[in-house]
Every structure is written in structure tokens, then in C-alpha cells.
Amino acid sequence: MKILVIGSGGREHALVWKIRQSARVTKIYCSPGNPGIAELAECLPMTATACEGLRDFALKEHIALTIVGPEQPLADGIVDMFEASGLNIFGPSRNAAQLEWSKAFAKEFMGEFNIPTAAHRSFSKEEMEAAKSYVISSALPLVLKADGLAAGKGVVVCATHEQALNTLSEMIGKRGFGIAGERIVIEEFLDGEEASVFAICDGEDFVTLAPAQDHKRIFDGDRGKNTGGMGAYAPTPIVTPDLMQEVERQIIVPTLRGMKQMNRPYKGCLYIGLMITASGPKVVEYNCRFGDPEAQVVLPLYGGDIVELFEAACTKNIAAVKATEAQASNFAVCVVLASMGYPDEYPTGIEIDGLDGLKKFDTVIAFHAGTKMQKGRLATAGGRVFGITSRDANLARAIDTAYRAVGEISFAGMQFRRDIGRKAFVH
Ligand code: AMP
Ligand code: GLY
What is the DSSP string of 347-369? Predict the structure, then answer.
């Protein structure tokens, strides 16, 4: 069968890498892809949001299954469009993806179906005076969120009332937040450790993958600005089997039931951003896709045929896969190599050296995130450049190998965290 993967980052490289291992696949296309993906799949020149062009291609080439990497095409309704043409596509409809593209919708939904999350209120542009009073009367710290997709820049944790008031007027007033700032969610600060749980859903039933932990801040020790994610590892010991059961019972099951009840059955990867608090797991956010960099550790650990799993999700047949679900016992660690300046402005087109040196590590995969070919040489093309992933039965050894592999690669201004995976040993 022929497969199409949509997207161009480390997450999509991991998807293509895993899909290649399925015996059922004869050909993989990826649009737009990147130089790492180009070694495994045929890359197409269309961007991830060129929904009509992608659908026409899928029809013409008889693509048996399309997998959507990023959130924007899902929010644009690519799944609805493909399905209207009779095409199989792994991902939620636009209405189901609203769990990610509107934080206000997600909060309301969780309220209605009793899903544990931070206490909150949401305000429209016209309700700014009420929002200000709410801020002043709330305990600190306080979390402000712009409603729509804001590429990770829509959340501010405020330590003082003054900062919260300033952030409020910035979010509503500034064009930088775009449509994302039309509504504001103000919520209670949750104290605890974060984890990412991924459920592959068919609208009713689901399978969970290895629970992961991302490292969102730019600097070691979780200091500095929030990024898209500087590294991940899985499975994380903070999500014990008991806790996973609690997450399934209190969060995943009622989410799928609620979405079905609202006539928005959720099919695809449901990413639960969790805070493990003293009073149990709470939802920080829903995402309607795989995490990046979490995909780079979670997908290599999956023991079964990932194409069968995605197909089962599209055909309401997850229960059949569940019975044969393989539990991988290994650990995986991914260290992200980023450009100088990331998560703010960064240069591109910087030449990369040493990638060939990774060939001597047979447990390491270099997932390309932001690379391009430039005058016949590999160069940087994004904020996050690589996700260097290592797998091992032992987590400490997996971390050690990942960093030895990182030591082979160099480009001017390369930055990375030196403490990826260390959180696992705190427990
Ligand atoms: P989000 O885009 O909603 O995932 O928020 C981005 C990051 O902000 C999260 O990964 C958390 O680190 C932090 N965050 C968001 N909401 C809260 C909250 N209620 N309490 C504490 N931290 C939060
Ligand atoms: N790693 C965080 C995300 O994908 O949203």
C-alpha cells in the first residue's frame, strides 16, 4: 500500500521511519518532508497546509492511508476534505480537533464531562473589565492563555497581578496574537510534573503508547523560555501503571465518550498534556496530533506494526489491535539540537558537520527537524535542527549513548540541553 505523510519536522521523520518498517507498505510519500525523510520517502513540494493539492495527489496516486503530522491542516479541516473524497486519513476532523485549536472549547468540554483540569474562566474581547477584576481577585501565580493556535507562544505564567494585567492587555491588544487573542482563558496554576500521554483513538476505543516526558524550557534545569521541546524520553517512571489507569479512566475514556456524545467522534492521536499534581493527574492541554519531540521516542518504542494501528483507528477497529498490542520494554531518549537564538530569532543556512559519525552507533537515529540541502551540503533550516534518538534496555545508558552521538555533530551556534532524561532519576 501507498502512504502519504504530511509535514516536515522531526515528528514526521519519526513517522516515516516507523512506517517504513511495516511489511505492508510499498511506497511512502511525504509532503513537504526534509533531507532526512528524503532517504526513506519521496518528498513532494506541497506545504503541509496545501490541503486541496494534497487531496488531489492522494486521489490520483491511490494513496491507501494519509497521516497528518502538524495541527494546522487538522484545524483547517484536511480530514473532512479527504474523507469527503472517500480517502482514508489518520487524524481528527476539524470539529474534533477543536480540543486543540480552541482552549476555551477544551476547557468548557472538560467542565461538562468532569475531566480533571485547572479551574478557569474564559473572557471575550468585550469582557475585558470583568477579566481584569477576575485577575485582581485571583490567587497567584496565574496562567493566561490566548484561545487559538499560537505556535506555543500563547501561554504566559504570571507571578504578579501587575504582570497578569499587562499580559491581558497585550494578548487582547496586540496583533501578534492574531485571531488567537480573540478570547482569553485565565486559569489556576497547577503545581507538579508534566508528562505527555498519547492515545491512538478510533472514535470509541483507544490504545495508549509509552508515556513520555518533554523538556519544554530552553536551558538545563527547566530554566529560560518555553520552546517547542528540547528533548524527550519514554517511558517515564512518573506515569506508573496505576497512574496510567487513572489517566485512562478519568481522562481518556470520558474524553472519547464526551466527543462522541457531541457528535465529534475523536479519531487519530489524542495527546494529553498532563500535570501530575498532589491531587492526581490533570489536563494542562489537549493536542490533536503527536508531540514533537515526543514522537521521536514514542514511535521507535512501539512494538507492533504502526500502519496496522493507524488503519485500525480509521476503520473503528482498535479493539482488534489491542489484543495483540506489543509492549516494548526499551527506553528511548531524544536530544534536540537547536540553532543559536532559538526559541527567538535564529540564523539558517549554517553548514552541518559530523552526521556520518553517527553510523557507528547502531541504536541511534538522527531525526531531521530543520535541515536543508544547500550547494550539495547539509545545512540548518529551522530552530530545531535534529532530534538525536537513542534506544536501550537501560535508560542511563540510552542517555549516555545519545550524548556521545550528539558529540559527533557540530554546526556554528548549536545549542542543546545536557540534562535530557535526568528527571527520571529524581523519583
Ligand atoms: P499549553 O500550550 O497549554 O500546553 O501550555 C504550555 C506550557 O505552559 C505547558 O506545557 C506548561 O508548562 C505551562 N502551563 C500551561 N498551563 C499551566 C497551568 N495551568 N499551570 C502550570 N503550568 C501551565
Ligand atoms: N512537545 C510539545 C508539543 O508537541 O506540543
Answer: ----B-B-GGGGGG-TTEEEEES
Question: Percentage of the chain with pLDDT > 70?
Answer: 95
118 ligand 1 Cβ < 6 A: yes
Position 199 pLDDT exceeds 80? yes
Closest to 411 in 3D by CA, of 351, 367, 333: 351
Angle between helices 103-112 and 253-261 (to 10 degrees): 100
CA-to-CA dists, residue 70 to 9, 125, 274, angstroms: 9, 28, 20
Lowest mean pLDDT among 150-159, 184-193, 272-281, 311-320: 150-159
Phi-psi label, residue 33: left if phi above 0, alpha if psi -120 to 50, beta otherwise = left
Angle between helices 306-314 and 10-19 (to 10 degrees): 100
Residue 393 has pLDDT above 60, yes or no: yes
Supply the Cα-derived Rg of the chain in whole angstroms: 21
* Identity at 226, one-letter amino acid code: N
Least distant ligand from the CA of 106:
1
Pocket test for ligand 1, best of 155, 187, 217, 289 (most atoms within 8 A of CB): 155
Q: Cβ neighbours of residue 283 under 8 Å, at least 6 residues apart? A: 106, 110, 115, 116, 117, 251, 272, 273, 274, 275
Residue predicted with more confidence, 15 or 426: 15
Cα distance between residue 104 and residue 124, in whole Å:
10
Q: Mean of the pLDDT values across residues 320-347?
A: 88
Best of 99, 288, 292 to mutate for ligand 2, by most ligand atoms within 8 A of CB?
292
Whether 155 is in the pocket of ligand 1, judged by its Cβ within 6 Å, is: yes
Site to probe by mutation for ligand 2, drawn from 155, 287, 334, 420 as the one with most ligand atoms within 8 Å of Cβ, is: 287
pLDDT, mean over the chain: 94
- Alpha-carbon distance of 129 to 158, in angstroms, equals 18
Give 92-102 pLDDT, tens digit per residue: 999 999 999 99
**Three-class SS of residue 263?**
coil
**pLDDT over 70 at 114, yes or no:** yes
